[in-house]
Amino acid sequence: QVDRLCRALLTLRRVEECYRFLEDICTVNEIKALSARLEVARLLAEGHTYDEIARRTGASSTTISRVRRFLEYGADGYRLVLQRLKS
Q: pTM score, two decimals?
């Protein structure tokens, strides 16, 4: 099932298509949580402090810490996406 979801994501060609799919598959709060985690990862990668990140995103220190842990010890998915978004 996860493989099928990943393949489904790879079929999306434009941001508008992504919005449509996310709106169908996730709740608004789930979409907000995912996008907030990505923003936390971006800010951590840029060297911002926990306090700055919490102030800018409203994320809890637990969420920031969890994202930091995945940035440092995870599967490098955040880093891959962040590098590609920069290009």
A: 0.90
